[in-house]
Amino acid sequence: MGRFALAAIAILLMSATPVHADVIRDWNQNTVEVLTAGNVLGNPWSRAMAMVHVAMSDAVNSVQPRYTRYVATAPVAPNVSPEAAAVSAARHILIQVAPAQKSRIDEMYADSLSRIADGAAKTDGIALGEQVAALIQSDRATDLTNAPDTPWGMKSADQFRPGPPPQLTSAVYARDYNETKELGGTKSTKRSPQQTGAVRFWTQLNFGPSWNEAARQLSARKGLNVAENARVFALLNMGIANTFITDWDAKFHYNFWRPVTAIRNGDMDGNDATERDAGWTPLNATPMHPEYPSQAAIQAGAALGVLESVFGPGPVPAFTATDTGDPRLQRQFTSLAQMAEEQRLVRVWGGIHFRNTLEVSEQMGQKIAAHLLGTCMTPVR
Q1: The CATH number of domain 3-375 is 3.20.20.70
Q2: Domain ranges of the chain
Q3: Per-residue pLDDT for 11 more than 70?
Q4: Residue in 91, 81, 65 with CA at minimum distance from that of residue 120
Q5: Where does the chain have alpha helices with state H?
Q6: pLDDT tens figures, 17-66
């Protein structure tokens, strides 16, 4: 039986497995939907996602102290509803970061609260959630909303800054130059239709949401409890937010040229193994910032590191990544590493990055993940 048939059977079997609702997964999806509706993108998107999920994690662990809290000054309240605290914290943050979506947020909030039994535990949980959210907002009050410069749980943006890109005269640079030139151009005859389809799917809008979607699906299958979910989604989105901050730091430190500039000026790099093509055009539109490192690849490494720490390396139950603009467009994977690899390689196939950059960037992401896992939301002993 072929791989695709086996994958289809696995998906059908999993669809028959009961999946229980969880307020953390619910508000993860709610948050993605609210930010999409509000056209919150890039750095502000990752900042908002981290704030919501750190607030939910701190709220839950103020009730059930399973993991350390990011801001530990809220009171411990063991007799309140952790679910009420979590949804209240999420709502409070979301209204601040996406005020135009308040009516939508309040509808989601009312729906979540309707599923929690009335009483003092619920009322006090709501109050606790608001208090925790205010603490998280205060903690991030000076981090520059549109271009955050304060990473989550790290000493500085340059803590994991990599060494410089390869010398233009090196064999590594020539290898990467010719690979991107051959595979990443609009007129490439070497790039397969499958690779082109992957490039078209993996726009910047789908990277972060796809990791959250994967986490929701795998969490449901594994049956994580509220505290476990709160932790993994907080760490995931802290890691994603940090990738924007660390990437921006390193990009403008090195200011390395993009393939379109490099290939059109291949006679100026001092490397006999790179041939100029003055008319070369990448399949993807070239971003208006330097090439090295790659935020997409840092993100893939960070997300992979966090999620594999919970769901393990190697094969996992098949999961789906869905386009944020058109839900009919989907990609399916049977390992987290498989999705991470595709997210990296599309930047070569799209003509906007070099392979060495992607390899170095993934290592940056792995370091970010390892640091967060070792220092934040750690088990309480």
Answers
A1: no
A2: 3-375
A3: no
A4: 81
A5: 3-15, 23-37, 42-63, 82-97, 102-114, 120-139, 171-183, 193-201, 204-222, 226-254, 259-264, 295-311, 336-349, 355-375
A6: 333 459 999 999 999 999 999 999 999 999 999 999 999 999 999 999 99
